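Predict the 3D structure for this chain.
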Amino acid sequence: MIRFLLFYCFLFLFQTLSAQHIIRSGTPYVKQYAKNIYKAGNQNWGIAVSPEGIIYAANTEGLLSFDGEFWNLHPLKKKSIVRSVSVDTNGKVYTGGKGEFGFWERKKYGGMHYTSISGLVDKSDLQNDEIWKIIIGKDKIYFHSFSKCYVYENNQIKTITASGEPFLFPHLTNGDLYFEQIPSGLHKLVSDNLLPVKDKSLLGQKNIFCILPFDERHVLIGTATDGLFKMDKEGNITPWKTAADQYLKQAQLNNGIEVHGGHYAFGTIQNGVFIINKNGELIQHINKHNGLQNNTVLSITKDRQENIWVGLDNGIDRIEINSALYYYADFSGSIGTVYTSAVYNGKIYLGTNQGLFVSPWKGPDDYNSFNFKLIPNSNGQVWTLSIIGSDLICGHNNGTFKVEHDKLNQISTVTGGWIFSAIDGTNSILQGNYTGIALFQRNPTVAFIKQFDEVKEPIRYINQKSGNEFWIGNENEIKLVQFYNEFKNTSVTNSIARDPQSNIRYHGIFKVENNLVFATDSGLYVYDDIVKKFKPHDDINEKLGSFKYSNKIIPIHSNSYWFVKKSHIAHVEITSNGTVVIDSTSLNPLSDKMMNYYESIIPITDQLFLIGLDNGFAIYDTQSITKVEIKKPIISHIWNISDGISAILDEQISIANRENNIRIAYASPWYASSSVQYQYFLDGYSEKWSDWEETSYRDFTNLNFGSYTFQVRARSADGTVSEVTRVSFEIQAPWYLSWKAVLLYVIALGLITYFGRQWNNKRIQKRQFQINRRLLAQQKAAIARDAELNEQKLVKLKNQQLQNELDIKNRELANSAMNIVYKNEMLNNLHDELKNLKDSEGRSLNPDQLRRVNKLIDDAHNDDRDWDLFEKSFDEAHGNFFKKLKAEYPELIPNDLKLCAYLRLNMSSKEIASLLNITTRGVEIRRYRLRKKLSIPTEKNLSEFLLER
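Done. Predicted structure below.
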């Protein structure tokens, strides 16, 4: 059990130490922030980090803040220089300058509010002081000037002085506060009293610029030009002699911090930053030569990720000492673009477009400054470096060379050695070059044998298919060649040219899980031996995502590979069950920094890799990969962008409807060479989370009124996703939907309802009145109609009565006329009888007697009394018929009128003849004459005409 526990304790300790490893070869990545980026003054006198990770710098033009995405300058009212800055655990930022000190409080959406506390001090005491350092204690804040220290507690200020001596700087270490008095030396503050340390005289006037924790009993003291010292708890001080001692003395130490697993970083006035370990070994030296903007380090601190931040005499830089990537950069351009590299016999070789360069190499854990030199006669393009057996072979534009004692010995004059491929189970090697394939031997030393005549085109890719079959090719064509007669001859058995219409380019032939795959622009292909055709490697293509378009596959170990897609590198693991695990983020900082299609990654150890870059190389240490929890993003700014850009600083955000266009900026104080990605969701607007992107703000335009909640989260390069940050805001309803408008609507609705009801009542009354009036009118109309109908009936009855009377009168007239006819007929018969009448003796009557009788008969015929009576009755019955007819036709004579009357009574010609005592023919003649007088058309009936009068 003890051994078991010891083993796991050792394993845990080993993992902890591994995580704290700093590579000593190369230089960590340095991110430069020039003044044109942060837009403030050159000098940054102080630098500090808030608990949430925001960087604050004391700049000559004010307080600078940086949240990982946006720099902001917060000037003091008098535009005075800010000399010092410090942040407490609550995020309150304390600053000091000339005659002024106070604190800043960060507003919710990016603004800063300053509160001066220097007013608690007499102006005459403070006006000539500058606050150069601020120390935050447990309950007190120390604002330190060279003449005194102002202690702020419970909104009161008291001062600490050194009995007339000036101070240099205070230092807080392990809870103890030290002051250096000049010339008395180092003192410790105990119960508001300055007590001298035991060996203070040893450091007299040596200008202490930092005191850092070292171990349980000691602190580390850094002086300006006298090196480093250790001091124990009793105040015993001894010099600490280190390998870096001379460097620090010459560079003039100015500040220091403890970083990254017990290492120390010291900023200097003349030569940048030195990093040492607790053994005093120099681990890194970062200056203007290898990354810093300026060699004068005015301030130094570290962030939550253990990055070192330095405020410089000209700019601000971030040094990523905890990164897995360290760099060697050829800033002078003398080396050129790196195409290939090798570590061989304690040296590192770089093959570039300028030639072959060499520098000593003592491994990643030995500090050294690379010093690359061009190997004589190597000028020109170097394509490949291969360690074959115990030989380092260089494929060059001018041929093939063996590298021996930093000299080139040519072993082949065939130009352009692109690639070497060993033939399994033999002592031979194939080389692809400008003009085809060459054969080399491996042992006892690499030597050229022959160039095959059967292949004449450039060969860039070679890989063994089976014992004597090899796939070879270039960008345009892939061939299967077969060697025979112990590789003395060869023949092409299958040639597969690129389809001109497809524009597919071949990038290489590689082995993945012991299967040959062909890298193309269209993804990975395999060759089907049964159908003798290439086909997409669908299974792995689907799992690789975008890395199926890789142009290079470099094996690491069994089932572990580097997939390279135009300088974008992914580490791919293929598990035993076929699962593909892809890490495409760890090496993101190298994207676009390599020569496309000529990427070079070589192993130095199992965990260390050397990667060729455009202007140097990078060292990648997989032991240094550590996951750091990424904090949730902060909402750095909210702007109204409806009319220009104006900041919104209110905690409760309510935006007018006419200004419904906003921009929300967010940032995660995560500082790495790989950019942070963000994903957002606007509740009430978005349907799903957005895609991951590096853009750190989002515009929302033409938002409908209502409440919204904006959510955002961040993802670091290693795939760690932060918690979600939320901010709610409201787009006010338009004025016509505001509560005032709604109240107005309610009042208006009430008034409308009231007056509407009044109007409706009046309308109902009016309508009722109209209905009543209409009913009355209808009643009157009905009565009138009934009266009219009754009158009509009465008239009809009267007419009927009159008609009846007329009919009666007509009948009477007819009867009267018939009586007259009858009378005339009797008189005519009587006249005829008298003519035949004889006396008793048979003699005719006496003519005189007959004449008298005939005269009586004629007088009876001509008696007008019957006619007068008839005419009078006819006029009464027919409405003055004769009078009207006479008035209309004055030429009518009495006989015409008589004829008209008889015709109106619809009497026959015979009856009319009897009445007029004329013949029927005479009646017709009179009728004819009457028609003429009345001007009646022939087609018109005379009786009908008269009936119409």
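Residues 594 and 666 are 32 Å apart (CA to CA).
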